[in-house]
Amino acid sequence: MREIELKLELDAAQEKRLRNSAALRARSQGRARTETLHSVYYDTADHALRAAGIALRLRKAGRRWIQTVKQAAGPMQNGLSEPLEDEAPVPGPNLRPERITDDDLREQVLGAVHQGINPIVETRFKRTKRDLSLPGGGMAELAIDVGEVVGGGRAAPLTEVELELKSGRPASLYELAAELIDRGPVRFSEVSKSERALALLNGTAALPRAVRKARNVQISPGDTAEAAATAILSEALAHYLPNVALLLESDGPDGPHQVRVSLRRLRSALSAFRPVLGEGAIALWADAARELGGRVGALRDLDVLSGELIAPHTGDTGTAALLKALDAQQEVVRADVRAHLASGLVTRWGLTLAAWLAGRGWLDADDHTQTARLAQPVGPFAARVLDKRFKKVAAYGRRIDDLTIDERHEMRKELKKFRYMVEAFRTLYDPDTVKAYLRQIKDLQEAFGALNDAAMAEAVLTAGDAPWQRNAGATMAAGRVLGRLEAGADALWPQAARGWARLSALKKYWR
Known about the structure:
With 511 residues, the protein is an alpha+beta fold. It has helices spanning 12-19, 22-27, 48-51, 103-115, 171-180, 193-201, 225-249, 254-272, 274-277, 279-310, 319-341, 344-358, 370-375, 378-397, 405-424, 431-461, 472-505, and strands at residues 5-9, 28-43, 54-61, 64-71, 80-81, 84-90, 118-133, 139-151, 154-167, 187-188. Strands 1, 2, 3, 4, 5, 6, 7, 8, 9 and 10 form a ten-stranded antiparallel β-sheet that branches. A hairpin with a 2-residue loop joins β3 (54-61) and β4 (64-71). The longest helix is centred in the last third of the chain and has 34 residues, at 472-505. The protein starts with a strand and ends in a 6-residue tail after the last helix.
């Protein structure tokens, strides 16, 4: 049996608000049911079942024992999964592979049993279930799990929400989550409970808050433009959400950096697919991403300025005072960014964007040309996008020796958009060719990076209300920083001209 599930991780405060929310009461159908569950997961010594995407467990619920086999249909996409599940009662804590009704699953589990199968990890938690009505019709089952995962003699807390679709549209699960989760961060659960316990077994944290970088999107020339748009935009959202959680929980530079990059990738993809999905469908998400990116960008700029551009020169007179003032400003900006990202407005934006992607929210019954646009092959469409982006860069590149400072910045932005699209469509083309092409883009971006650093530092350090301007030493240090960065940008600019010459001479592999 296939299930459609949406899983989210919650912190303790979110879990408490969810249980007490008016939206939960309004959507509830009948009474809540609570049970204590103890699950034991089994596998071979070399984790053969896990390698096959299979989870085999015995779960005790009250006095009953239930054997469950789950196999993922594919990778989770923003918390949504459609696992194949085979469940059967068993007499006591003993595996009964012969009771697995799915032939393929039974064969794979029996093969593991013949290799030698043993308990590996456990979960213990209290589950509260409710039946909820869905926006637009249909029903879902809500399960709130609070407990712990156990492995390798270690334990870690678990707080997770699962929404299982009983009837209705899968996209409605996101819409329901947007009603129930009033504040962020939204954390889609990308791993199963057994995988969390295995992380402990291997000596790592069960819920690591690691930076999540952009990943390649697997699309092929035979895919439709709509399928490619869904995949690329979903990856941008999957890149964004975990790094919001990281930004809210860590003062390190990775969270702001990756959130800003993810929002830029999202905006670039929305712009590229506007001819396919339609202007009306795009504007809301693009405008919100731009506003969010501006807020997070202010924090990222301060990270770069203080941590990368000034901190290496702490021995200079006045630098300590300048860094102290910058740190104070950074904390103010960080608090503002965190409050905004954790707000209900931004939380709902992320969940409703996921619903829009899952439910094909761009479909317009009154647009009679839309079907053909959505169904067009992505190969020729990608070539047109890359041509358009390259031409915008080339319009500046042809005059690179005569560009004004403002035009240099415009060329830098167009180059970044072009790179995002090269990366988005990279699996359509020969990987070695794309890799070599991207290397040239990145080399060219280095010169533009120095230009951007100088402009950013000037905007921050010369602001009229900057607190360091009241300290003579800090003011002098700021002047030295600006002079050093401007000199570096000037020295690197000839590299930009050479980099553009090399890039423009390369064969346009997408044509």
